[in-house]
Amino acid sequence: MPSYVVNKKRKASEEDAVAFDDEFQNGALEAVLSDGSDDEEDSDFEDFGSPSISSLDEAPDKGNDEEEGKYLAAETDDEDQPNFRVETDANGGVRYVYDEIDPVYDSDDPDAKEATNTIGDIPLSFYDSYPHIGYDINGKKIMRPAAGEALDALLDSIEVPKGWTGLTDPETGKPLNLSQEELQLLRKLQTNEFLGNGVDEYPVSLPAKSLVATGANTDIVITQDTVEWFTSVEEKMPLSAAPEPKRRFIPSKHEQKRVMKLVKAIREGRILPYKPPQEKEKEEAEKEEKYFDIWADEQPRDPHVMHIPAPKLPPPGYDQSYNPPPEYLPTKKEKEAWEKAEPEDREKEYLPQTFNALRKVPAYGTLVKERFERCLDLYLAPRIRRNRLNIDPESLLPKLPKPEDLRPFPTLCQKIMRGHEGRVRSVAFDPTGNYIASGGEDGTIRLWDKDSGHELWRAKVSSEDRVQVVRWRPTADTFILAAVVGEDVVLAVPQIDSLSGEVENTSREVLDNGFGYAKNATQLTTASGARKDPPGKWERPGSKLESQGVLLKVTVRSEIKVLNWHRRGDYFCTVSPAGQRSAIAIHNLSKHITNNPIKKLRGGIPQHASFHPTRPLFFIAMQRSIRSYDLSELKLDKTLRPGTRWISSFDLHPGGENLAVASHDRRLVWHDLEKSADPYKTMRFHSQSVRTVKFHKSKPLFADASDDGTMVVFHAKVVSDLSEDAMIVPVKTLKGHQVIDRLGVLDIDWHPTEAHFISAGADGTIRYWG
Amino acid sequence: MGRIKKKGEKGNAANYITRNQAIRKLQINLGDFRRLCIWKGIFPREPRSRKKASKSASHSTTFYYRKDIQYLLHEPLLQKFRDQRVLEKKISKALGRGDISDAKRFEHNAARPDKTGKPTYTLNHVVRERYPTFVDALRDLDDCLSMLFLFANLPSTDAVPAKMVARCERLCLEFQHYLIVSHSLRKSFLSIKGVYYQANIQGEDILWLVPYKFKQQVVGDIDFRVMGTFVEFYMTLLGFVNYRVYTSVGLKYPPKFDESKDAQAAELGAFTVESEKTMGAIEAPAAAAAAAAAAAAAKELKPNPKVQQKVDKLIKEMNAEEKEDTNGITELAAPTEEDAPDALDKFEPAVAGGDILPQPSYSTTNPGKLFSNCTFFLSRETPRAPLEFILRAFGCRRIGWDAVLGEGAFTHDEKDERITHQIVDRPIVRAAMNQENGDGEDNQTAQKLGPNQQVPGRVYVQPQWVWDSINEEELKGVNSYVPGAQLPPHLSPFVKSTAGQYDPTVALEDQELEGEALDSDIESDPDVEEAEETNGNDLAVKDLSIDAHPDMDVDEGDDDEDEESAEGDNDSFGGFSEVEENGAAESGDEEDDDDDDDDDLRRRQLEMDAEMRGEHVSSEPQDPKSKAKAEAKKKHAAKAKQEAEELERRKGMMSKKKRRLYEKMEYGRNKQSAEAEKLRAKRRKIEKELAKPEA
């Protein structure tokens, strides 16, 4: 590197040059000399292993002659012995022949020949198979630079010089080294610095001299003037002439406070003298829990209203014993069921087991889990205070008088009357209570003897329609039976032997009276003037029927389902649910006139209609409500809401202040007309729809009939006194009729005086209950 | 005119607060909140209307009472938790910064109760707050004791530090010592889960469960942090309770604890209970005697008559001393018992005519004297801890056991002549039957008797004898408890018999419902399963018989007013098809004047049926006994039917609300009675099977 350094020196500052001159005073000038002479004479020493040679940096300015001469002179001055011989060359000229330089490594030949390309413009690879690369001027082979082991050995012995890259110069095949300057340059390129030579962008405030003194090898530093933004020199003179403040001379209050705090803490024992950690641990471990009588001054305190103490776990039962009574052990089936069930679904978390000795009892597997769950229950489960009903269920049941005390009421089926083909639709006791009339789906009306149960009379009123209803005219002086067949109401005087002539005559007279009444009185006409059909056509049913006793026929516009007589027997009402405006008809028997008093019906299809037993009121049951109309004033009196979904029928108590409603939704509802539109009692005794309900005319009894084939007899004591409610007691459930096609008992009727009734069943029988 | 009420200021909305809201209000994390709730005994509530309490509440939202949370706000522990959290933060910060020394210093300050078992806080004030009086604390002691006894038997792990286990054990043993001294243990029960004990302290019944000495299995999801929190509180509680009960009977608390003895599994023997006044050890003489005996036993491996004599003499002296000492103690203890708050008065009617109330006495016999005259020896296969505890608590002062069972025995010598009762729990070895009094040498134990060999002059019983004796409060006859005998069933003393429930102590006949036995007699089958099924069916059959034969009334067309019941009888005959029924009904008119007699009627019926079918009637002679039974059964069925009808009649007249309530109650009652019935059926079958081989 010396050559490089020297070259730099020329450009560098003077001081630098001086410094470096010192380095080279150890007689290396020789080499310099020889270097200078390189131009003229081709030194033929082999440039072996000089790492400092680089072809890049060396464009050695072949110094001017002047300089060279000067060096030369110096050389001659210094050296006594010339290292060359003077010979004559081939031309006879003088020729200096220099001694061969022994290229030992330490020679540190500064003017070792720089590598020159002697191979011309051919690739280096041509020499790959040769030990040399090109030839020198003397025609000698220039040996390939050392490689491999020799080089390794050498490298081991020397340190890597600065600028060594490890690359090979592609031109010379020698190692490529970079000079310091080039490295600097590269660095500057990398950091995007200004490339101008010798310009320091960042002037340091330190004087240049000190830098030199430190021996830093920043050899290219050009010191610029440092701008001292802040003075680095301490001013000796105070700038302010203010006197020193007082606080500098008196003790600080704040500090005193803090000290006092510490003192206090130490006194109180909050700050303890330091102890080594082991000792402290030991002390803590030794410290016992201090127990004392925590309840020394106990004062009972009522728990908070909202506090709910945790319930205790139930004590173990017999089945938890290790040796329980054998009946507590599970059977195989129970065991399997228990094992199969999910742990959450099990009723008990354990299975009773038995061990014949205590030593055989194993550990209980889930004890820890159970305890854990108890813990969870204690802190995680919401607690609710539940009032346990500590009442006797018996007390909930209403106290009913014994049925035995409420006699008489029907308890047994006394007679069964068979004869009807198909269902018996309707039954009725005649006003004297001696005969029973019935109508069935076979289109016949029959009369039965109450006592013997024998059929006395029969009339087939229709071959296709069924007899829907049979009802007796309620007065005892006549013997008139009304029956509904399809759209017709037929009125008959059954011809039986025991019937007295007087009664029969009166009956016929009553039926025939109307034919003479105001035949041509009014002709109904429509708006257009055309004749309109009257709401009911009264006529004779024909000779065949007349011979059987059926004397009168009233035809209305649509099929009738319900017929009820007025108590005096002059009027009867019919309901034909499909009749719309003419659904409700009131027929006057004495005048043979039919009226449709109520044209506009609200609340669906009319189900039932009936006269009030004492007052001029008329009740109509719609699907969900029952309306009562005042017949004298022709206005709506009141509406009852039994709360059922489909009323099937109703019946008025003979006293006229109560009403029982049967409904298809299995309920029987009792209404007190004086009190409210809402039911007084709702009773459920049936599993199927309740068809009909009937009151006894004189006794405190009523009964209902249902499709489940049962009838329930109630005792109903109604007091006229307003302060006392009606007492309703079910006294007997009667079973007997069979359920056929989901129809059981279709109709019932009470005996006018005795506590007996008859029922018509879908099984074709009429039963007499007493 | 009242002011308009604003929403959310009253009622559910103001009274309840969700858990998250509570945590946010208290500014602690969930874990700390949980601990606080556990210690302070705060539990979630169920608002009457969840929707009103919080609009966004789902079914899993937990609600707390707002005042509970308000009350937690003033808890000093809250500050402790916060400080701890700050410290934890400091430590993690220091570690993050790499300041190891700082972190170490902080860590040193941090309390790590899970490691050291010593928290920086105490729960004393919480105990006082939760239990303003001592009786309140006693009321809540069930869970505390069960938990601590369980933890005393748990293996120590990371979650359960060894110190906690040791402390639990110590507290439990101290408590047991109190029960021994005060003789307040009342009952005990060997269940499959462990041993239940019931003590009565100041009139409060305390029931707890001690697991058998096995390694406890930890199965499933068990969070030991939760249990640890409970145990932390319970330890404090039991400590104070112990102090209180010890001082109440004039003892010093804590009792002296001998670690070396404890290391030798002395358990109860490791403690020396001292009186507060005399400062003398109460049980010291017994312990000394035991030690001497043990030493003697150790020496006595090869019996040396001289040594034996000496030892005997020594023991005699010791016994004499002991007697004196015990006398002294009883004198000493007598006044304290007088002062004890649970001392009982006798209430006798001063004036004649008053009703006699049950006396407030625990028992007629003094539980402290039950075993006072006995000397026990426990064989090595018996569970020593429960036996020792129970025997001591019931007055036994001299209990010896095999040396393998640990330190602290009265004697380790099985041949000691003072032993009156030996508790054995081993089967009789058949092979060794022939061996006679050959001294079976056993290297491991101090056992010097051969198998099946018994020392004359003492009673050999199985452990259950002890339990049955204390529960019955008298020494039971040992006949059924001798080794190898089939033990009588061990019954829980905690069950109070209620009407309608099955009670195994009462004879089957006394608790059977009417007609139940009859039913089962007729229908019972040899197979259990079938028997059960028929039992199940039985009810169904009854129901059917009510519903399915509605025309039965027809059979007797009788106007008689008293026919109600008779008619019912007929109904229960069963066995007629509908068609036959009709046939009968048709002929009902003719039968009007039939006799009331059921049998007659029935026979007639059968005859008629046969006639209709065109068959000949074969009159089968019936066994009079079975006939009587059938008759009784019929009667019962008729009665049942009538009752059912009556019930139906009344139920129909109920309002909807009441009916629902009634049905709910019915459900519960039916379930209970079904359970009882099942048990009775099982017992009936077992009894029958037992009777068979004899017959």
Task: Give an account of the 3D structure.
The complex is a heterodimer of chains A (770) and B (695). By secondary structure, chain A is α+β, with helices and mostly antiparallel strands. Among the domains of chain A are: 2-190, no CATH class; 409-517 and 532-769, Methylamine Dehydrogenase, Chain H. In chain A, strands 12-13-14-16-15 form a five-stranded antiparallel beta sheet. In chain A, strands 7-35-34-33 form a four-stranded antiparallel beta sheet, with no helix packed on it. A four-stranded antiparallel beta sheet of chain A has the order 8-9-10-11, with no helix packed on it. In chain A, helix 3 (29-36) crosses helix 4. The relative contact order of chain A is 0.06. The model of chain A is unreliable at 1-79 and 207-221 (pLDDT under 50). Chain B has four domains: 12-109, no CATH class; 124-254, no CATH class; 290-333 and 366-481, Rossmann fold (3-Layer(aba) Sandwich); 511-587 and 626-694, no CATH class. Helices cover 50% and strands 6% of the residues of chain B. Chain B contains 26 helices and eleven strands. Chain B has helices spanning 12-15, 19-26, 30-40, 50-53, 66-72, 76-97, 100-109, 113-116, 124-130, 134-139, 141-152, 162-182, 224-248, 259-263, 284-299, 305-339, 384-393, 464-472, 508-511, 516-523, 528-547, 563-571, 578-586, 598-613, 624-652, 656-694; strands at residues 16-18, 63-65, 185-190, 195-201, 204-210, 256-257, 271-272, 375-378, 398-401, 421-423, 459-461. The radius of gyration of chain B is 36 Å and the shape is flat. The chains are: A alpha+beta (770), B alpha/beta (695). Chains A and B meet through helix 9, helix 11, strand 7, strand 28 and strand 32 of A and helix 3, helix 9, helix 10, helix 11 and helix 13 of B. Chain A: One of its GO terms (biological process) is maturation of 5.8S rRNA from tricistronic rRNA transcript (SSU-rRNA, 5.8S rRNA, LSU-rRNA). Chain A: Residues 315-328 have a biased composition (Pro residues). Chain A: Keywords: Nucleus, Repeat, Ribosome biogenesis, rRNA processing, WD repeat. Chain A: Component of the NOP7 complex, composed of ERB1, NOP7 and YTM1. Within the NOP7 complex ERB1 appears to interact directly with NOP7 and YTM1. The NOP7 complex also associates with the 66S pre-ribosome. Chain A: WD repeats lie at residues 417-458, 745-770.
